[in-house]
Amino acid sequence: MDNNFILLCTLIMIPMIFFVPVMYVNAYASDESATHLTTMPVGLLFGMTCWLFFSNIESFQFSFRNLDLTTFKPNITVLSQLCFYLYALIMFVGTSLQKIKLQFLVAFIPLWTLLVYAPLANLIWSSNGFLYHMGALDFSGGLVVHLTAGITSLILAFFKRNTKPELRRNSPLLNYVATLFILTGWLGFNLAPADTFQNHGPLIVINTLTAVIGAVVGWASGSRLGLSLDSSTLYNGIICGLVTSTALVAYVSTPSILIVTLISGLVCHYGTDLLASSTHFYDPINSFGINGIGGIVGTLGLILFATPTVNNDGATGLLSGGLQFAEIEGFTLIVTVLTTLLGTLICLGIIKLIKIIILSRRREAAF
């Protein structure tokens, strides 16, 4: 492990994460910008507190067989993993800015971390994890980060029922700058799990940039007007490619990731259009349409195209005859979906119950 390398990746990721709210605020009404640009950073800082105090331990140290907190000594990966966690968090926070208050975030973030993110990070990424020992792969968070956040956003969109703003704050310059920081930061995002640049670093960089190209072409091809390219298409395609790359970026060849992201661009474009017209699942920032669907498509691409000729630490995908890995990764995908659905619903149920208890006590005090 190269501590300086991981620290550099982390320092690249931090500005990326704090520029995501700059992009998200453009999806809402212009008169709400100041409020939203306060809510999102506060949510990030509160999430940072949760990660440093308990979530990192639950994610990477917890084991039913051996849990000894007296010997716990954090290393540099605490910081890189913090950035993964914060990116997941900012996605679902951005979905329901219209309807949520800071009090909701103070209750929801630790509950979601405890019941959804940390358990899945432990299962898939921790050396103590059950799915990790089975052979599940998720290089930089297609499942743990993006699918969990995407599904959580979908559930929040359903229960909070966002309304479409009549006049969005549309700033092409801010979107351009935010996308630039996200694209640059994502190189750190995808490289950090490698621990050192010598561990497939060139492949990861090339595959990340190829994924961007593939998804932009796929997204542009999905337009009802035929091949169409405008600023929105460009930015959405870039994010889609980056998200899709996370599950498989170090485990497949460059032609393979190009095919996967071309398909992802098409599918995510269709998914976001479908959700944009929905009254029940409208999401101003397209979190599920890009992150959720992109995470699924990337994982399916990993199942198909993984090959040990690219990375000996990877797996053998279906197209190379790896049926066993396909079963393990498919099972991991199902576990991720079900854990996120159930965990998020439990979080909302607990918050609802707390609210009922507080209101009941206030009524009793009034008499």
Structure description:
70% of the residues lie in helices and 0% in strands. With 367 residues, it is mostly helical. The model has no long low-confidence stretch (mean pLDDT 89).
Features:
single chain; 367 residues; mainly alpha
Q: What gross morphology would you assign?
A: globular
What is the H/E string? HHHHHHHHHHHH
N-end to C-end Cα span: 64 Å
Number of strands: 0
What is the alpha-carbon Rg in Å? 20 Å
Q: How many helices in DSSP terms?
A: 12
The helicity comes to over 70%
Write down the overall mean pLDDT: 89
Extract low-pLDDT stretches.
Answer: none
Main structural class: mainly alpha
Instruction: Report the biggest beta sheet as strand number plus sense, adding barrel if it closes.
Output: none
Share in β-strands: under 5%
Strand-helix topology:
Elements: H1 3-24, H2 33-60, H3 77-95, H4 102-124, H5 130-134, H6 142-160, H7 172-191, H8 201-221, H9 231-245, H10 254-276, H11 287-305, H12 323-366
